[in-house]
């Protein structure tokens, strides 16, 4: 296991990148702390697989360095990095039995037979496949195959990190929970550094200690699930995490007052904002009211999703969502919305800004 | 549900019946008809029972031709399949050169059999052929019209030249269907090049390779035109394969009875082998599909 450091890392698939938009992965500095579980979250094509492949050594970055415990491995081949990777589609060696599949990485490393046997037994117990050890791998279900790919990584006890590239995409929904729970348990029991790439926020938020959100080749925020929810650093994080995503209101900021349309909103501090300024408010922090306080809104429709209701409103031509509790009565004369205290984030040019004189 | 019974519906099957009758059943039955009769000319036929089959089963000539045939098929399979795989493994994976290779490799497959025969017949001639002349000038004693080994080598090299591309193209298609993740996983597992071939590429190619082997076996087992054009079955009977012998017997000597019995047995052998291949392939598929 190791600490993985990315130093000034960037990558472009073009031979001669000129401007920032040529980079699939924009410049990035980050330490992946030893023994933590990370999720790399972002929509398709945001560079998360590129980043993963650079860490695993399948791709050589066009600039910057990758360090494992301080040792430069930027150009080291995959085999020398001692990492394990589980891919989107289960990779098993069809003609081998489950036992031979699990033993394969060790055999290639010329380990002695007794040790291989011991480790295979141990890993089989971890992934709960002891009964199927002598089955041929080709006949197994997708989730069993995915467990074998995982086992092939875990069987090397000294792996620096376990990397997952959307490993649950082809797994049936009811098995996803099961596998994810097992992954979490394995992480808890054995403490491998894990990096888990996904575009599914539920997967990311339930699996990881820290979630790394990527957007357009850039890491926009790294934080715990709670931080991502309460203080999204970028409007994309607000929009991408949460269901429905964060509402954005175009606003003019003047000190501690924001103007949204004709209405004014009191802010919790004084902001010096320039550029395109917006207020971000999660649907959970929007209150419906009637009267003359707040921002004018009309209800378009109400969706009952079981645990709560989602109210879709029209505010100045834009659709806004609010969450109401399951038992809450929504008044027919609702014509205003207000914001719950502490639920407002201020954005300038898509990045969150903090009040003057306050710590970030 | 009530279905209307209308026997006229049988007429709908008629076109297929007629087509199959004329293309397969009637010609085959004609051969069956010849195989159980004898004739002394004048279109007069006598019942001969199974005598011709008995004759053929005890004929050295047929057994020798079958032996040569099996040897030929075995040799070309032993060369073309590994060579085809080797070529496929070394072809560029994408880009201009990949398309270029595909086109170049398809060319031999497009040349008609007798043209291939003619090309090699001239190519190997000692007086005017590039290959024959060069070998002769190098002091190598090469003459496919007189030396049995030279004749065999020429026929085999010709077949390898003509058909290895087919195996290579099929193997290439099989290789291209392997997702990159397999190679990446193998890298992470520190698999050797041989292990990658043995445990990833070969199993994934198994299906197309079976088809390639079947096609190449059947084609070579029925080969006629190319060796006939190059060697005419000679020197002596050295390259007289089953089809060549059959044509000699049926059209050269006009021994219709024995030739008919011969062709029926030939037909049965091919059917039997195809059935074996088919069974193996469907079992493989089932095992894969599970």
TrEMBL record, chain A:
CDD domains assigned = ABC_Carb_Solutes_like
Q: Which GO terms describe its cellular component?
A: ATP-binding cassette (ABC) transporter complex, substrate-binding subunit-containing
Q: Which UniProt keywords apply?
A: ATP-binding, Cell membrane, Membrane, Nucleotide-binding, Transport
InterPro entries according to UniProt: AAA+_ATPase, ABC_transporter-like_ATP-bd, ABC_transpr_FbpC, ABC_transpr_MalK/UgpC-like, Mo/tungstate-bd_C_term_dom, NA-bd_OB-fold, OB_MalK-like, P-loop_NTPase
The residue ranges of the ABC transporter domain are: 4-241
Q: List, in alphabetical order, the Gene Ontology terms for molecular function in this entry.
A: ABC-type ferric iron transporter activity; ATP binding; ATP hydrolysis activity
Query: PANTHER family per the record?
Result: ABC TRANSPORTER ATP-BINDING PROTEIN (PTHR43875:SF14), MALTODEXTRIN IMPORT ATP-BINDING PROTEIN MSMX (PTHR43875)
Family, per the entry? Answer: Belongs to the ABC transporter superfamily.
Q: What is this protein called?
A: Carbohydrate ABC transporter ATP-binding protein, CUT1 family
TrEMBL record, chain B:
In what residue span(s) does the ABC transmembrane type-1 domain sit?
66-277
Has keyword Lipid biosynthesis?
no
What CDD domains has UniProt attached to this entry? Answer: TM_PBP2
The record ties this protein, via Pfam families, to: BPD_transp_1
Keyword Transmembrane applies: yes
Q: What is its main location?
A: membrane
Q: Which UniProt keywords are listed?
A: Membrane, Transmembrane, Transmembrane helix, Transport
Output the InterPro entries linked to this UniProt entry: MetI-like, MetI-like_sf, Sugar_ABC_transporter
Transmembrane residues, as ranges? 12-36, 70-89, 96-123, 151-175, 196-218, 259-280
Stated membrane topology is: Multi-pass membrane protein
**May I have one GO cellular component term?**
plasma membrane
Query: Which terms under GO biological process does the entry name?
Result: transmembrane transport
**Intracellular or extracellular location(s):** Cell membrane
Family stated for the protein in its record: Belongs to the binding-protein-dependent transport system permease family.
Name of this protein: Carbohydrate ABC transporter membrane protein 1, CUT1 family
Q: Which organism is this protein's natural source?
A: Loktanella salsilacus
Organism lineage reads as: Bacteria, Pseudomonadati, Pseudomonadota, Alphaproteobacteria, Rhodobacterales
């Amino acid at each position: 296991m190791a600490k993985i450091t990315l130093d000034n890392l960037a990558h472009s698939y073009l031979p001669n990148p000129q401007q920032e938009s040529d980079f699939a992965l924009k410049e990035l500095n980050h330490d992946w702390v030893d023994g933590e579980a990370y999720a790399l979250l972002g929509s398709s094509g945001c560079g998360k697989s590129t980043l993963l492949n650079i860490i695993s050594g399948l791709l050589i970055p066009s600039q910057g360095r990758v360090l494992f415990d301080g040792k430069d491995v930027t150009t080291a081949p995959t085999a020398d990095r001692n990492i394990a990777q589980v891919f989107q589609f289960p990779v098993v060696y069809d003609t081998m039995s489950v036992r031979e599949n699990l033993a394969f990485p060790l055999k290639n490393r010329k380990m002695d037979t007794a040790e291989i046997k011991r480790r295979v037994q141990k890993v089989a117990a971890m992934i709960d496949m002891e009964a199927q050890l002598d089955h041929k791998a080709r006949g197994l279900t997708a989730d069993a195959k995915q467990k074998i790919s995982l086992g092939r990584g875990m069987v090397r006890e000294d792996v620096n990190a376990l990397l997952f590239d959307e490993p649950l995409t082809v797994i049936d929904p009811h098995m996803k929970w099961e596998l994810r729970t097992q992954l979490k348990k394995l992480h808890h029991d054995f403490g491998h550094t894990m990096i888990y790439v996904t575009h599914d926020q539920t997967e990311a938020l339930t699996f990881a200690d820290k979630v790394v959100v990527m957007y357009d080749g850039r890491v926009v925020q790294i934080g715990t699930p709670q931080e991502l929810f309460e203080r999204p650093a970028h409007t994309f994080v607000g929009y991408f995490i949460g269901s429905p995503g964060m509402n954005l209101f175009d606003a003019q900021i003047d000190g501690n007052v924001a103007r949204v349309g004709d209405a004014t909103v009191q802010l919790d501090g004084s902001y010096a904002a320039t550029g395109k300024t917006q207020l971000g408010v999660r649907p959970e922090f929007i209150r419906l009211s009637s009267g003359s306080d707040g921002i004018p809104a009309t209800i378009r429709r109400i969706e009952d999703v079981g645990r709560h209701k989602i109210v879709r409103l029209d505010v100045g031509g834009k659709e806004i969502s609010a969450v109401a509790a399951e038992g809450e009565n929504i008044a027919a004369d609702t014509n205003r919305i207000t914001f719950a205290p502490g639920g407002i984030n201020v954005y300038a040019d898509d990045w969150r800004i903090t009040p003057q004189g306050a710590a970030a | 549900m009530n279905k209307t019974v209308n026997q006229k519906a049988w007429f709908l099957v008629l076109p297929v019946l007629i087509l199959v009758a004329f293309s397969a059943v009637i010609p085959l039955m004609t051969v069956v008809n010849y195989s159980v009769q004898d004739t002394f000319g004048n279109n007069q036929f006598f019942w001969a029972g199974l005598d011709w089959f008995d004759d053929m089963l005890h004929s050295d000539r047929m057994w020798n031709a079958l032996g040569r045939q099996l040897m030929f098929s075995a040799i070309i399979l032993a060369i073309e399949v590994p060579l085809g795989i080797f070529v496929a493994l070394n072809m560029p994976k994408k880009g201009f050169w990949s398309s270029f290779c595909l086109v170049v490799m398809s060319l031999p497959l497009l040349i008609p059999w007798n043209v291939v025969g003619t090309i090699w017949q001239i190519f190997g001639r000692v007086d005017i052929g590039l290959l024959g002349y060069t070998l002769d000038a190098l002091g190598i004693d090469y003459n496919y019209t007189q030396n049995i080994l030279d004749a065999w080598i020429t026929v085999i090299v010709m077949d390898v030249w003509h058909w290895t591309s087919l195996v290579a193209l099929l193997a290439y298609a099989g290789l291209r269907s392997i997702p990159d993740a397999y190679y990446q996983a193998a890298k992470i597992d520190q698999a050797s090049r041989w292990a990658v071939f043995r445990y990833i590429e070969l199993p994934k190619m198994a299906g197309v390779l079976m088809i390639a082997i079947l096609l190449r076996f059947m084609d070579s087992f029925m080969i006629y035109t190319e060796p006939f054009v190059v060697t005419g079955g000679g020197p002596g009977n050295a390259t007289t394969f089953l089809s060549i012998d059959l044509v000699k017997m049926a059209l050269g000597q006009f021994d219709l009875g024995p030739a008919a019995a011969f062709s029926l047995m030939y037909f049965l052998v091919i059917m039997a082998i195809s059935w074996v291949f088919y069974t193996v392939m469907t079992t493989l598929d089932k095992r894969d599909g599970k």
